[in-house]
Design a protein that fits this description.
Strand content: 15-25%
Strand order of the largest sheet: 1-2-4-3
Structural class: alpha/beta
Order of helices and strands: EHEHEEHHH
Distance between the termini: 19 Å
Helix content: 40-55%
Number of strands: 4
Radius of gyration: 15 Å
Shape: globular
Length: 147
């Protein structure tokens, strides 16, 4: 399994984060999903970049916490190899959410990583039943991160 973490943006206002911890946690998430041979890209970006992506792909030109771009579906899915896709995390929004929830930034990043990876593998939360299944899977994966 391979996890590439790019970023974070250089911003003195953001708390420090542990890229190695995020990479290890991503590996554990993939293993818990039975995707040990998969590859994953995680991009840690600033508000401007995630707002641009959110505007382009979701029609909502404002910062968000996490976006997922799955390679398991679409016109060229058969050529993806082992790459599941990209999880893009807005670090500034993650930091704001972490402060509100009284969590560390590293834990908030893990929470968003789990959410994003679940979207990559087909989970959604548009309908109540889907949302309940996704929340249950998020809880299971969070427990898989425990040492």
């Amino acid at each position: 399994m391979s996890v590439l973490v790019s970023g974070p943006p250089r911003d003195a206002a953001l708390p420090a984060l542990d890229r190695r911890l995020l990479r290890r946690r991503a590996g554990r998430v993939l293993a818990a999903l039975g995707r040990r041979g998969a590859e994953l890209s995680v991009a840690l970006v600033d508000d401007a970049e995630i707002a641009a992506l959110n505007g382009r792909y979701r029609g909502k030109p404002r910062p968000t916490d996490v976006l997922s771009f799955s390679l398991l579906e679409g016109a060229h899915a058969e050529r993806r190899g082992v790459l599941l896709g990209d999880v893009v995390i807005g670090v500034a929004e993650a930091a704001r959410q972490a402060r509100r929830a009284r969590r560390t930034l590293d834990d908030e990043l893990a929470r968003l990583l789990i959410h994003g990876v679940l979207h990559l593998v087909g989970h959604d939360h548009e309908e109540d039943a889907e949302a309940a299944r996704m929340r249950a899977e998020e809880r299971r994966l969070w427990r898989a991160l425990a040492p």
